[in-house]
């Protein structure tokens, strides 16, 4: 990798000084600018190119060079942004000055970094539990509910069962009321149809959708509702999931309780509510291969958002193949 030169070009120094004095950028941001512009100068020096005569072709070649040396797309994008900013600053001056001689030395007709983009970042796959891990977590919650028979344990079992059964977002789950309210001052964001075993929620973009609830999850919810009804009093929220004080449950409480249960179930990963949604989508897709149905249940506006789970499905199949096929690893011996 090219080393940033000890002495930056005078015009680079002038630009950094302006960022510091006039724009008052933070020391951390200025350090990043200095490093990225220093790398630009080093790349130009390596190719014997004057900074004021850099072309679009040079910049494209250097971006490719950074990529080939293992720089991440995010790092390259940041560098290009810094380079673009400096050349924009130069073009605004109408001409590039020789900082020492004070005379015009070159004219920049256009910014050489324009239209140069960093390589596309690989979209990271969502983290999902395996079927065995998801069932282990749900069984741990149900076991504690049966043994302790306290409000928190019974409520947690219903929450985890519903998250995995219906693939809800945390905000959607916490917006569910014990029954639908059409009061203008307190219209329900979500509710359960106890007879039809369906949950209706308000998703992103203000779109409502209804998702079926599995039998075991409905059983956990009914046990929770029975206990919840015993708490009914004037100051109890109409929310389905409430705290011991009767208030609607907070996201942090659910996150903390789920994390604790996952540790008790000895799961080897940090489990959060959205991971249960990913697990739901991945496992339903593995079984049904019905991408459109999964899209509707998740409430995705675009099928492209749902297609990422096909990659998880392929990972699952590849792992199963490696474990089961007698010649899967024959070439690796």
How many H/I helical runs?
12
Ends distance: 36 Å
- Percent helix, as a range, is 40-55%
Task: Label the structural class.
Answer: alpha+beta
| Count of DSSP strands | 6
Largest sheet: 4 strands, mixed
The CATH topology of the largest domain is what?
A: hpI Integrase, Chain A
Radius of gyration: 29 Å
Report the CATH superfamily of the largest domain.
Intergrase catalytic core
What would CATH call the class of the largest domain?
Mainly Alpha
Q: What is the ordering of alpha helices and beta strands?
A: HHHHEEHHHEEEEHHHHH
Percent in strands: 5-15%
Give the integer mean of the pLDDT values: 84
Q: Count up the domains.
A: 2
Q: Outline the low-pLDDT stretches.
A: 98-105
Sequence of strands across the biggest β-sheet = 3-4-5-6
Morphology: elongated
Which descriptors apply to this entry?
54% helix; two-stranded antiparallel ribbon; 333 residues; DNA polymerase, domain 1; 2 domains; elongated; alpha+beta; hpI Integrase, Chain A
What does this structure look like?
The chain is α+β, with helices and mostly antiparallel strands and 333 residues long. The strands form two sheets. The protein has a four-stranded mixed beta sheet with strand order 3-4-5-6. Helix 10 packs across helix 12. The longest helix has 22 residues. It is elongated. About 2% of the residues have low confidence.
